[in-house]
Design brief:
With 252 residues, the protein is α+β, with helices and mostly antiparallel strands. It has two domains: 2-147, no CATH class; 174-247, no CATH class. It is 43% helix and 21% strand. It is built from nine helices and nine strands. The chain has a seven-stranded mixed sheet with strand order 1-9-3-4-2-7-5. Strands 6-8 form a two-stranded parallel sheet. The longest helix is centred in the last third of the chain and has 42 residues, at 174-215. It is globular. The two termini are 26 Å apart.
Length: 252
């Protein structure tokens, strides 16, 4: 479970120096759904801090209404998230019917921004969302969603009683100790060598499957529902491959 810290500033300001291996996502939802959404994201087991802000257009509302959306009825959650956490963040939302939407973000009537967007099924997604400012530069309340255990310190091993340790060493045949250690190392090596290639092969198979289905014109939801993807996804997930992140990253 994550804890949330609030500070005033801009999303760009609180993420300075921490954008490597990260991406941005805009999550669109009915304003009435925001409390339920926040209760769920607090339970997400992400590994790195997620930075976010809620966009609240106070000016420029008429332009948004002209695009087909009522801004006062919606919440816009803009997040900065580690790419490897994107799958676990979106997994539960997608299962609840959230969909990726092809919504262009147009700040200050300027060039469209390349931001991945997901929308709650009850929200109104539009083709173009005009904003009166750059969403990364607007000042307001910003949030750090900090996962528990980000500073885990491994406990020091307990000290052995010196007399008992001497007795154990003296009563143990040194040859037996060496043989057991070598066997343990060999066994561990076998496991590592066997697992790593299998995981890599499954990742490659997942990528090929996604690419083939995309080549047939399928969108992200169609890919995830396709029997071919379901079969390889099940095998890859069993091998601890983060399939969700691979899918979402492919379509960003």
């Amino acid at each position: 479970m994550a804890r949330t810290e609030m500070k005033r500033g801009t999303l760009k300001g609180i993420t300075v120096g921490s954008n490597e291996g990260r991406t941005h996502v805009l999550l669109l939802m009915p304003r009435a759904h925001r409390p339920d959404y926040e209760s769920k994201i607090d339970m997400i087991a992400h590994t790195e801090t997620v930075h976010s802000t809620y966009l609240r257009p106070r000016e420029g509302k008429d332009a948004i209404r002209d695009s087909g959306m009522e801004p006062d009825d919606h919440s816009f959650h803009l997040i900065n998230i580690a790419t490897r956490d994107l799958g676990v963040w979106m997994q539960n939302l997608i299962q609840q019917g959230w969909n990726r939407c092809n919504m262009e973000i147009i700040p200050n009537n300027s060039k469209a921004m390349d931001i991945m967007c997901f929308a709650h099924p009850s929200s109104t997604a539009v083709e173009r969302l005009p904003l009166p400012w750059n969403p990364f530069d607007v000042e307001g309340r910003c949030y750090n969603h900090i996962p528990d255990g980000t500073a885990i310190i491994e406990p020091a091993p307990e000290e052995l009683d010196s007399e008992k340790e001497s007795e154990n060493l003296s009563s143990t045949d040194s040859d037996d100790v060496e043989v057991e250690s070598v066997e343990a190392i060999v066994e561990t090596t076998k496991v590592v060598v066997a697992e790593a290639p299998a995981s890599e092969l499954l990742e490659e198979e997942v990528r090929r499957t996604i690419d083939l289905l995309r080549a047939d014109g399928m969108d992200m939801m169609q890919v995830m529902e396709h029997p071919k993807f379901a079969e390889v996804s099940e095998r890859a997930s069993a091998a601890n491959v983060d399939v969700w992140t691979m899918v979402v990253s492919t379509f960003q």
